Amino acid sequence: MRIRLEKRGPISFRARLALPFIAVAISFAFSFVLILLARANPFTAFYYIFYGALGSPTSLGETAVKTTPLVLTGLAAAVAFKARFYNLGGEGQLYLGALCAAVLGLHLALPRALAVPVIMAAGCAAGAAWALCAGMLKARLKVDEVVVTLLSNYIVIYIISALLDGPLKDPRTMWPNSPPILESARYPILIAGTRLHAGALVALAAAAAVWWVMKRSVLGFEIAAVGANPKAAGYAGIPVARTVVLTAIMSGGLAGLAGVGEVIGLHYDLVEKISPNYGYAGVVIAVLGGLNALGVVCAALLFGVLITGAELMSRYTGVPVFLADVIQGIVLLVMCAVFVFTQCRVRVTRRT
Amino acid sequence: MTDSCSTPSPPLVEMRGIVKRFYGKPVNDRVDLTLRRGEVLALLGENGAGKSTLVRILYGLYTPDGGRIFVKGAPACISSPRDAMALGIGMVHQHFTLVSELTVAENVALGARPQRRGIFLDLPAVEKRIREFSERYGIRVDPAKKIRELSVGERQRVEILKVLSKRAEILVLDEPTAVLTPREAAELFEIIGALKRAGAGVVFISHKLAEVMAVSDRVMVLRRGRVVLDRETPGTDARGLSAAMTGRDAAETAPRAARSPGGPVLEVRGLRARGDLGIESLKGVSFTVRRGEIFGLAGVSGNGQRELAEVLSGVRAASGGEFLVDGARMRGATPRMLAARGVGRIPEDRMESGAILDLSLKHNLVLERYHLAPFASGFCLAEGEIDSHAERLIAEYGIVAHSVGIEARSLSGGNIQKAILARVLEPGPALVVASQPVRGLDVGAAALIHRKMLEERDRGAAVLLISEDLDEILAIADTIGVIYGGNILRIFPRGEADRERIGMLMAGVREGAR
Fold first, then answer.
1. Is the entire prediction scored with pTM above 0.90?
2. 35-94 of B, contacting A, C-beta below 8 A
3. CA angle A113, A114, A117 (to 5 degrees)
4. Could you tell me how many helices (H) and strands (E) chain B has, helices first?
5. β-pairing, B226-232 with B218-223?
6. Nearest to B352 among A10, A220, A232 (CB)
7. Smallest Cα–Cα separation from A75: which of A56, A99, A49, A93?
8. Closest CA to B298 of B451, B177, B474, B463
9. I need a labelling partner for B220 at 20 to 30 A (CA). Which of A40, A134, A281, B78 fits?
10. Which phi and psi angles does B206 have, rounded to 5°?
């Protein structure tokens, strides 16, 4: 007997829409097993996850706070992947945005209406510039962007660590964090009593903008064409290298904006572990969301729920908080596996 | 290799009544093939005649829809290359499958029966065996050299060594000389001779009549999936084989009367280009295509026409020479600059270069003009314009599609080609460069594409039609050039061209030299 994977025809739009839901369901089933292994009731555990994330106005606010950077890093990855520019550097680009925001936030003595936009633009530019390096290397020298972007994360993170132990360190504490930024450099809080800040609106606006660019603009057309078939795109005269570079800029800018929000919306200073791997989670979110802006917002919300709710779940059931990370990992793996089955069908042949 | 001479041993391979269909269309139609020990069988035929399909069935890459295969007299079920190798069948592909950073010995060891010492690969033993083979068959290659240090001819010898090291007695060589210099080809023929004397059977696929006459013992010609000739080579001549290949009985469409052509649109002057392997594949061609003229460039594929088309399309750099469109030098121009100059380009690989299968049909229809008015204003796409443009072209070119937004992937090959044609012709190009525009298409789609190209000519466009289908060229071209080995051997007006002469030139037999 022999098992072969054979190419299959295109699958229907409806089937494609169902894919992320199937993947999430399978991932939840896997995590059920893990929760059982941690000697807890999976149903209770999931109840506390959702209750902890959505059960009260405060927890809803917390979920939105966690979802905000995930939307931006998810969009960053989605835009890049659409052009087949595999930017895994969201984490580093986010950190650079955060660094920029912290430095400007400390020293930029302007009224808020000026300071915030300037900081946003600077953080965006910093992330974009970092991604641009990888984009140029790929467009000009055909250097693999996966390796470059992934490794460039460490460069940024270690530089920031060094800065927080040196010039950026708050002299009043013994921890590696910066002094708090100016009051006028902060995003306003949207709902008093929660930590929900204006960054959430920025993320939603970014999602709307990305949707428009991808569906309605000349650049979006070029990104889709280059991503789907760079050879045919080049043959038709689409500037492939320019498209890759512009995509890199857009992607890095979105990730940088995520970092800005964490500093001027949430922490008000720069700390070493300002992102619990939001950049990498963005990759999973982009894939789960089908590289589509609306899908990214939904997937980011799901992950926001998981991350927020995992803490309460852990407190009540004793299952470690890491379950949220594990589920993220499983979702990515399952999503990749499900993709294989959209391309191929399994054929079993019996030998005579 | 044979133990006795008294009993006639069964043939090495016997394929009987092989049938293979692709999408219901037979590409092998009841084909019989016999290969004896110590015999070189040449498989001859135009592209698409079914030669490659036949040997792929023998090598287990395709499963036949009908017919039986016997190897050394015993019925064989070959469902994978592994099965084929176990039966002693080896294949040397046109495109090499070597790891360029490994040495010759390491490449031979890859995939062969492992020669081990403990858990380690016994490379000295592999090298020793390579030297044995080298001596026995005169295959000269240094086992310690890395593949990337070798010439194309040497790489091919490594491929042959790989096959021999798996104890193959039946060798299939798929167009082995296509990438070789004449000198390397001569060395290959010596190796084939040595293999033959050692009792192996060789199936040799080729387009080139001269080498078929020189190397083979028997020749089999396929046309449209059927065997049209199977004879001992000494009993044939180049003229007869060429006629069998092209089918002189095929009905010829009388070319429509062309109006007398106008001024030159495309002037190609001494154009040179390198192929993918870095070898010069286009060796200085010159010709002119005029307004209101279809220039048909005939030739078997792999003779430089792909490189020519790619240079003229702006996707391959020329290594010498120049080409002009309406008097302007265009060497080095990008596809977008060419399109702006009125050059319409129809690529040979429509699924790879012509269309983006994951995009919608309507977007494929504006692939070269999406950034121009009326399809875009500034940064915004005008989807409404793109939709109505698509609807108009779908009606005009008879593209069968459920909606304008359907993914190109779900369209048939013929409809994709119609869409490419629509995209290219719609702006009214001054020059159309069409490569193999009807290859693999059904009769209806092919007829529509030919009609459109004739309309373009009558409108006053210059058309360069590159094709390996002689029937197509004879049917619509006004001027015919024949390309062989990177050179244009002859150019004649349609009236002076006859099928037999072109067929001979396509096979590299120069006039007066037969």
1. no
2. 77, 79
3. 90
4. 16, 24
5. antiparallel
6. A232
7. A93
8. B474
9. B78
10. -155, 160
Cβ-contact B433, B313 below 8 angstroms: yes
In 3D space, the residue among A48, A42, A70, A62 whose CA is nearest the CA of residue A257 turns out to be A70
Contact A284, A147 (CB under 8 A): no
- What is the rounded CA–CA span in Å between residue B325 and residue B313? 12
Q: Identify which of B417, B441, B420, B440 has the alpha carbon closest to the alpha carbon of residue B429.
A: B420
Q: Name the nearest CA neighbour of B36 among B55, B54, B9, B60.
A: B9
Separation in Å, CA A201 to CA A75, A121, A197, B79: 14, 16, 8, 60
Judged against a pLDDT cut of 60, whether residue B70 lies above it is answered with: yes
- Say how many CA atoms lie within 13 Å of B118 toward its Cβ: 1
Q: Give the span between the Cα atoms of B437 and B439, in whole angstroms.
A: 6
Q: Residue B385's closest CA among B365, B402, B399, B360? A: B365
**C-alpha distances out from residue B417 to A149, A167, B292, B434, B492, Å:** 39, 64, 23, 11, 29
Give me the phi and psi of A17, to 5 degrees please: -65, -30
Cβ–Cβ < 8 Å for A252, A128? yes
Query: What is the Cα–Cα distance from B339 to B372, expressed in whole angstroms?
Result: 12
Q: Which residues pair with B26 in a beta bridge?
A: B21
Establish if A350 touches chain B: CB-CB under 8 angstroms. Answer: no
Nearest one of B192, B234, B231 to B213, comparing CA atoms: B234
Let me know how long chain B is: 514
Closest CA to B298 of B457, B48, B508, B45: B508
Q: What is the DSSP letter of A177?
A: B
Chain A residues close to B345, C-beta within 8 Å: 235
Report how far residue B114's alpha carbon sits from residue B125's, in angstroms, rounded to the nearest whole number. 10
Confidence band for B206, pLDDT divided at 50, 70 and 90: confident
Spell out a b/e string for A236-264, using b for 16 or more CB atoms within 10 Å of the CB, else e: bbbbbeebbbbbbbbbbbbbbbbbbbbbb
Report residue B232 as tokens.
Answer: 């001992």
Strands of B430-471 (E only): list them: 431-435, 462-467
* B372 Cβ contact list (under 8 Å, min separation 6): none
Sort out which chain A residues have CB atoms less than 8 A from B379's CB and list them: 217-219
The C-alpha atoms of residue A10 and residue A12 are separated, in whole angstroms, by: 7
Residues of B in contact with A246 (CB under 8 A): none
Task: Determine the Cα–Cα distance for residues B161 and B173; give it in Å rounded to an integer.
Answer: 13
Amino acid letter for position A84: R
Residue B438 confidence class, pLDDT cut points 50, 70, 90: confident
Tally Cβ neighbours within 10 Å of residue B399. Answer: 23
Contact between B295 and B478 under an 8 Å Cβ cutoff? The reply is yes
* Res B466: pLDDT: 95
Q: What is the DSSP string of B49-63?
A: SSHHHHHHHHTTSS-
Set of chain B residues whose Cβ sits within 8 Å of the Cβ of A209: none
Asked if residue B335 lies in contact with residue B315, where contact means CB atoms within 8 angstroms, the answer is: yes
Task: Round the average pLDDT of chain B to a whole number and report it.
Answer: 87
Interface confidence, given as ipTM, is 0.86
* Residue tagged 């002689």 (tokens): B470
When computed from its CA atoms, the radius of gyration of chain A, rounded to whole angstroms, is 21
**What confidence tier does A267 reach under pLDDT thresholds 50, 70, 90?**
very high
Task: Identify which of B344, B363, B347 has the alpha carbon closest to the alpha carbon of residue B409.
Answer: B363
Chain B residues 325-344 with CB within 8 Å of chain A: 334-336, 338-339
Phi, psi of A128 (to 5 degrees): -65, -45
Phi, psi of B260 (to 5 degrees): -65, 130
Query: Alpha helix (H) ranges present in B268-382?
Result: 305-312, 335-340, 361-365
Strand partners, B267: B288, B324
Give the bridge partners for B344, in sequence order.
B432
